[in-house]
Amino acid sequence: MQPTIKPAGDSALLVSFGEVIDEEVNARVHAIADAVERADFEWLVEAVPAYSTAYVFYDPIKASFSEVKAAIEPLLQVSPESFKGRLVEIPVVYGGQYGPDIGFVAKHNGLAVDDVIEIHSKPTYRVYFLGFLPGFAYLGGMDERIAVPRLEKPRLKVPAGSVGIAGKQTGIYPLESPGGWRLIGRTPLRLFNPGREPPTLLRPGDMVRFVPIDESEFLELYEAEWGGGR
Amino acid sequence: MIELLNVPSLLTVQDSGRRGYRKLGVPVSGFMDDYSARIANYLVGNPGNAPLLEFLLAGPTLRFNASCVFAVAGDVEVRLNGTPVEPWMSHWAKRGDILEVGALKSGLYGYIAFAGGIKCEPLLGSCSAYPKAGLGRPLKAGDILNLGYAVLTRKDGRYLPPGLRPDYSAKEKTVRVVLGPNLDHFTGEGIGTFLSEAYTVTPESDRMGYRLDGKAIEHSEKGAGIVTDAIPTGSVQVPANGKPIVMLRDAQTTGGYAKIAVVATADLPIVAQSRPGERLRFEAVSVDEARELLIRREKTLRAIKGFLDGKMRAYRIRTGEEELIAFTKVERRD
User: Does CATH number 2.40.100.10 belong to domain A87-226?
Assistant: First the structure.
């Protein structure tokens, strides 16, 4: 399939495969965004992949839309295999104070709590892209057997690192924020750390696996990640 | 060093923003009105992107604990030790002097620049505050800011004449936009509504985006939702209620509402400086026209910098209805 190119204002250009959520399409999007960034054009600000689109942000003083378009067109044929994300393992303590809604998720789906943990920690999830909050990953690949509706009333404060489920999606809150997802656990890792370069644990195109840990492991890792630093 | 004595509204350190972190979900942030902010920096002899203070509606009161050259950009009353001094002009302050910046008479954001810039540890390449992610925080009374090193001689007394200042006082302003990229989510009538009606800025507006009220824009059968993708600064999203939202500096990096248009970069300050209750009209231009507007604006800013540096002279030319400002190089006689 051939993507279309459209202007998105005077400083960005939209490469689109249409409005689809599909692993193969997303792999092509990552390959294109990566190829554009590696080509090191002097007008390039950055390429931002999402599900089925890559926005190419450029400096309009340095190049016009048609110049940018002409420069990236040859890169659209790049093979999806040219870009490989990393596999990132994310330790999670499930249930208890860390995952207050895990009982609801189990009950709603007619499962035992241990089944929820097993089903959630089994797949390898794909980071389709990051957005919404710094370091927030849109993950694909959750097993629908643990799908649940959102909370009717969002919590005012969800701690950073909370792992939640909303509909057929799962995700991790990178920052303390309000939120309506059902919380099943928490990772001690910092998803977003402004003092680090790059500041996010996950990057677009990575693969993610959740590894169940117990509370003492959580506390130990938590101290190492959050203690002392900012 | 300066000490903030009174902070009546949102006051943050801003520079030209973060570059290259959208793909990790980090908003660009930076000056809401980069035109005024850059002139404020030029007035004190800084590079245009030096970190300065951005205030919303009303400025702070502060004390200088060391000599410094400063300038205020905005339609605002400024007092130094109780005596009125001109905005859009650089002044010398001594240790112990008190600067009071009042409420803006027009526009929404004002800037205070200091020679040498505000000293700060850049986070992800920028000093711009984005408190939501722990990148800086709003300033409060009692905060102390350090300034960068600057050669202070001959940086005061720089003055931008009224004809060269941006004017945000109109209650209805026209904003140029590039239509798209999700035009297929709107009916022809919807696009016509967007380009012919005036939209009022509502109080639910902040550095993230301005919600507008006015005649609802009709979506096509594809509806208001899109498969989530990136949000360029200035994107005009239209949720299901048909009322547009202009996404600005602190906007989240991705979103799921259809974008009917993106504001021309050169006109972003016009949006940012529009107060709740004021109206915006949108005019479609091509992507090349939008680029031309920006190139022209950059030329003007460069000429203004040259003028403030004493390297250019400005002339006002009246041709019938239109008033133009022309710059010429100052001849150097060595």
Answer: yes
